[in-house]
Amino acid sequence: MRALLRLSRFAMPLFLAMLALAEMPSASRASNGRFEVDDYFRLQRVTELALSSEGAWLAYAVEVRSLEQNKVIRQVYLSPTEPGAKPTLLKELSDASRLAWIPGAQQLAFIAERSGAAQVFTYDRANGAVHQRTKSKDPVVQFRFAPSGQALAYATRAVTPAAASLFARFRDGDTGVLVDTDTTSSHDFLNPEWNSLVAPARTFLWVQASGQNASSIAVPGDVKEFFWASDSHALSVNYVGDDNPPSLLRTHRRSLGIVDLSSGNFRTLVKSYPRLNGQPGKSFYGGEWIPNEEKILIRRVTETDPWVSWSFPEWGVADVSTPLRDDQLSWHLAETYGVDGMTFFPINDLSILVEEPLQGVQSLYVWDAQRMRRSELVAGVDGDSSLFAFSADRSRMVFVNESLTRPPEIYSRIGTEGPTQKLSNLNSSIAQKMKITSVAREVTWTSTDGATVSGWLLEPADPTHRGPWPLVTMVHGGPGFAITNMFGPYFYTWGGVWPYPFDAYAAHGIATFFPNYRGTETYGRPFASPTKIDGEPVDDIVSGIQYLIETGVADPARLGISGQSHGGWLGPLVMTRAKKIFRASSFAEGDGDEVVVYEEMPGQLNREVHDEVNGGSLYDSPQRYLDLSPNLHFAGVSSANLFEAGARSSALLMLALGKASRRGGLPTEVIVYPKTGHNVQIPRLQRESAERNLDWFRFWLKGEEDPDPAKAEQYARWRALRRLQEQNAPKTQATPVN
User: Fold this and answer.
1) Could you count the other beta carbons within 10 Å of the beta carbon of residue 649?
2) Contact at 8 Å (CB) between 461 and 552?
3) Best CA proximity match to 578, nearest among 505, 475, 509, 659
4) Span 306-322, mean pLDDT?
5) What is the DSSP letter of 654?
6) Which residues of 13-36 are buried (b: 16+ CB within 10 A; e: fewer)?
């Protein structure tokens, strides 16, 4: 679902990761004392955890963003699950992904591309031998070994000749190009790698018994996920049916089936169907088997809203030994952040463990027939926890834990009563800096209409000063994406969203406020579904800032605001509604003019998303789109404004904000990053943006300048902009909030 919404501001596209400190190259500049931007490029994040069946051995992948090599560096480690154990670097597995131990064996399986298409390999812990397990002509994209360890199921993606992209045809073609307005967007003119509206290559399922050749399984659609039965006799398959009608939402409309491995036959259990004639559609996710039973977990999505339906499924358990009708199952309400890609650990048919964010905290939760609740397995564990893995008997659990002020590390726990033990020491030097420079807490306030709203606050840790602080309010994207209690939010989320250096703000005396405004998911469906996308969300953000002013946290004369993606539209809208309270802003990858967005996006996206979310089409309700366009409402705005975008994404859409800001006599800079889409992925560009944002808010909120001679020209520009602002006062002068 999130991949679809990337097409406009509703995008956001797993957490990027860590590496053992002694093994990784250092960043380009020393970082002493307080936390600085370069520390983000020393941070090591775990991206994968795999625990052996008996729980004695742990394999994990860590990543760091190297400024020297200007890329992400990945390494794989092997370690006993005892505190203080020294991990071993597996250099031969630096290209390994999807780490998984073979059940009951001391062999670590993984995917790697070696001498051709990606294949499944295994690493033998006893002797270090690496063996290739599959020989597919097409690349293997996922796999699972049977619980018996004697069979392997894997999926391959068909390799098809790539057709010339519209981008290439527009620039290098010799004839006119017939385009489809339902699928063509501004991205086709900007991004040579754009293919989001091209049907993905088909994925096929294979099963390979030990010592035998692989057999193809005839699934009537594109395979998305599959799971083994406890006794290894069958597979459940989650797939997109071939008969699913064309739609931008097509890949999210899933069906479920069962493969009987004794015969190789496939049968459909429950089949998806789209919205039709005003009736909601249905999709079915899951397929995880209840341990030692002929039952599977199913999540049913009732498709009524393009934004929130996939995050509010019902769950049920189905007996697969008999014909199934979904209206005969007992369904229980649930909430996830997008039903696809979640990790589930069924306990029995009445209780399901799930790793997900809830109420703004990522952790391990229990779904049962009555409610969702935090699992006893993480009792007493604060912060965000992720990448849970269990031993075969569920006696030992490993996971990654972190918080807004504590960098991530790996932990282990035995049962519900055992102590939580730290297994890694990846980021100890950074953790010491964070103790010096920042403190964090959850805040709750009452919005304009009496609703209770919450968020997170990151403050400087200065024993000589308790505030009020200069404050930057971060308007998150999605809009469903909740800011949780994780380290470096946004800098690392989902593979890197936008490199806002909030921790460095705190080190330089600037607090950051993360409101999880209405429209944010993980707080219940009513909260996720505001009556107007420019109504309650705006009120929640402004009332939250007012609360922090009233409680002495925020200095009303030094307020900033920031946001990316959906936040790069909602943030400017907040700024135009709450006029003259902000002194500075910085927005990325959003948009300013909803009319332009509608006309530059595919017609099919407009019908399936924008018409639904905005309350009608542009052609039927033009005034509504004008009201939602912040660039048309800059009169009275008083801030200095920085706008950033990727050259291959929203650069054209951000120009509207830059033009409106400059036309209003406001200090304005517009930065476009080359080779960049919706997220900044190149480390040196990430560092450039992070430094620019830190310098911007220090300059406009605190009057500070970095003495680095390399930044002299930057500050000369900004001083000239400040003189312009002073000349235009009082028209553009920020008004403190009382």
Assistant:
1) 26
2) no
3) 475
4) 90
5) H
6) bebbbbbbbeebeebeeebeebbb
Rounded Cα–Cα distance for residues 81 and 421 (Å): 10
In DSSP terms, which residues pair with 45 in a beta bridge? 63
Rounded to whole angstroms, the Cα distance separating 128 from 125 reads 5
- What are the DSSP calls for 235-247, one per residue? EEEEEEETTSPP-
SS3 (DSSP) at 160: coil
C-alpha closest to that of 26 among 36, 8, 39: 39
Q: DSSP code of 273? A: B
What is the Cβ-side half-sphere exposure of residue 704, based on CA atoms within 13 angstroms?
Answer: 15
**How many other C-beta atoms can be found within 10 angstroms of the C-beta atom of residue 68?**
13
Say which residues have a Cβ less than 8 Å from residue 124's Cβ, sequence separation at least 6.
106, 107, 130, 131
Averaged pLDDT for residues 547-553: 97
Place of tokens 């955890």: 49
Question: Which domains does the chain carry?
Answer: 430-593+629-728 (3.40.50.1820)
Q: Using omega within 30 degrees of 0 as the cis cutoff, is the peptide bond preceding 730 cis?
A: yes
Determine whether 82 is exposed, middle or buried from the number of CB atoms within 10 Å of its CB (0-12, 13-18, 19+).
exposed
User: Does the global pTM surpass 0.70?
Assistant: yes
Say which range, 12-16, 225-229, 306-310, has the weakest mean pLDDT.
12-16
Q: Is the pLDDT of residue 16 over 60?
A: no
In the prediction, which pLDDT does 731 show?
Answer: 54
Specify the residue for token string 């994925």.
Answer: 203
- Residue 422 and residue 58: Cα distance in Å, rounded? 13
Give the whole-angstrom CA distance, residue 596 versus residue 628: 12
Q: Which two tokens stand for residue 578?
A: 């709450």
What are the structure tokens assigned to 179, written together? 């385009």
Return the percentage of the chain with pLDDT > 90, whole number: 73
> What single-letter amino acid sits at 526?
P
SS3 sequence, 537-576?
HHHHHHHHHHHHHHCCCEEEEEEEEEEECCHHHHHHHHHH
Q: What is the mean pLDDT of residues 367-374?
A: 89
501-505-508 Cα angle (round to 5): 140
Would you say 454 and 444 are in contact if contact means Cβ atoms under 8 Å apart?
A: yes
Q: Is 177 in a helix, a strand, or coil?
A: coil
Distances (CA, A) of 18 to 308, 321, 369, 386, 487: 32, 44, 37, 14, 12
Residue 129 region by backbone torsions, left for phi larger than 0, else alpha for psi between -120 and 50, else beta = beta
The Cα–Cα gap between 458 and 190 comes to 37
d(CA 64, CA 543): 38
Please tell me the predicted confidence (pLDDT) of residue 347: 93
Per the CB < 8 A criterion, the answer to whether 478 and 10 are in contact is yes
Taking alpha carbons only, the member of 592, 687, 602 closest to residue 198 is 602
- The residue written with tokens 């920042």 in the block is 438
Q: What angle do CA 694, 692, 699 make, to 5 degrees?
A: 55
Measure the CA–CA gap between 169 and 151, rounded to whole angstroms: 46
State yes or no: pLDDT of 246 exceeds 90. Answer: no
Instruction: Tell me which of 180-194, 221-235, 535-549, 592-606 is least confident.
Output: 180-194
Element housing 2 (H / E): helix 2-5
Tokens of 218: 């005839």
**Is pLDDT of 22 > 50?**
no
Determine contact, residues 657/601, Cβ cutoff 8 Å: no
Helix, strand or coil for residue 451?
A: coil
> Residue 525: CA atoms inside 13 Å, Cβ hemisphere, count?
12
Q: Which residue has the tokens 């339902």?
A: 182
